[in-house]
Amino acid sequence: MCAHTAVLDADGVCRLCRKQTALIRSPHARTPYSEVARSGQQLFIADLFSSRHRGAAMTAPAPSRPLPAPPPAYRQLLLFTAARTLSRRGGFRGLAERADPHLAAWVDRFTIERAARHGWSRDLTWRVRTGVTIILGFLTAPGAAVTADDLAVLTEANLPHAHVTDVLEAAGLLADDDRVPTLTAWAASRITHLPAAMAGEVWAWYAVMRDGHATMPRRRPRSETTTRLHLRWALPALTQWAAQGKTSLREITPADVRAVLPAAGAARTQMGQGLRSLFRVLKAHRRVFTNPASKIKTAHPDPTIPMPLRVDHVRHALTSTDPAQALLCALIAFHALSAHQLQHLQLTHLHGARLDVDGRTITLADPVRDRLASYLEHRRRHWPDTANPHLFVHFRSANTTTHVGHRWINLHLGPHLTCRSLRNDRLLHEALATEGDAKRLGDLFGISTRTAHRYASTISHPDLQRPQPGHSHP
Question: Is 379 exposed, middle or buried (0-12, 13-18, 19+ CB in 10 A)?
Fold first, then answer.
C-alpha cells in the first residue's frame, strides 16, 4: 500500500499502514487499506497508541503483603505455668518445630520481605527465622498474641531480639507492651519512701513531663534525660521535707526552699532548677497553691573555659587506619560538626565536595574529602546491600535504618578525644585565628551569637597567653 520495504502481515499490509487505517477509520464503516495511500502516513511512537476502552479500569497490582493469618491447625493446651528459658546445649531444632507450620510459613513471608529490604546476610536471616519460629511455638491458643516476656528469652540464646520483634509487629502478632518503662521503674524506686500525698504530687508532675498535656495548660513532653535529671536534683529536698514531717508539697513555703538549698555552686543551681520544674507544673495544674521556688535566685553555674587539645592526640585520630575514626575526627576538627549532626548525616547530604548540614552548605576540605572517599569504600565493601540511609553505620545499624549513637562516636574517636572536646578545640582555634571575631565564628560554623561570644571572650584567658608544649594553640 505504502510502497516501502517492510514486513507484511497475513493481509499483505505493514504495521504502519494497519495503525494508520485504525486511526482514520469511521466508527460505522470499514475503511479499506487503500485509503491510507491517499491520506498520508502519520508516524507514531511504539507502544503509545491509545486503547479502545479508555474508561476501562486498570487491573489492580497484586498485593505486596500476605493475606491475613490462617487459622491455627491445632491448640496447645497449657498444663501449668512455667518460666520459659532457652539453652543452646540442645540446639534450636526441637524448639522451632513446635510452631504451627502454616502460621510459620505465613510469618516467614514478612521475614523474607524485611531481609530483602534491609540487606540482611544469610546468617542474620537464618537467626531471625529461628527466633520467629521459636516464639510462634510459645503460642498456646488460637489468635494468641506474643508478649514482651516471650520475646525476652531470645537474649539468652543470642538471637536478634529487635529484628524478631519488628517481624512479629509487622505480621500483627505482637501484643501491646505491658512492661514498665525503665524510667518509670527508676522513679518508683526513688519516690516510694515519700508520704502518700507528696508521692502523688510527684507522680502527677512525672506524668506531665513524660506525656505532656494536650489541653490547657498545654505542655510538650520532655525527654527522659530531662525528666530524670530534674527528679534527681529535687529528690534531696523532698527527702528532707519528708523527714521534717511534711506530708504534702502544699505545705512548702519559700523559707523551706531556702533552708534546703546548698549555699553555692552547681549543687544549688541544680536543686533550684529541679524544684522550679516541679512546682511550676504543679502550680499550673492546681496541685499546689503557690510556687515557693519562683522568686528564689539560685544563680547560674560557672561557665567552663574551653581549652585546646594535644596535637598528637588529634593527629593520631586523623591518621588512623580505621576509616570511620579518621573521617569522624576530620569532620569535627575541620568543620566543627556536633555529635547530633554526625549522627543524622545521610548519603543524600553529600554533593561532591559539598555537604548539606542543617540548611548550610559546607565546602569540604581536601583532607576531609580524602578520608570521606576511604570511608565510603570501606562502607561499600563491608555492607554492600545495606538500606541504611545514614553515612555512618556499624554492624548492628547496617541491618536497620537507625542512626549510630553518641557512645559509638566517642568510642571511635579514641580514649583521649570526645566529640565535644574536639569541637571546642576547633572553635577555639578559629577564635584565636580571627582575634575573637564572633560574627565570623557564627557565619562559618552556624552557631548562635551567645556561643560565638563565649569562644571569642576566651582568647584573653591567661592559660592561652603562654606557650604550652604539646598543645595545638599558643
Answer: buried
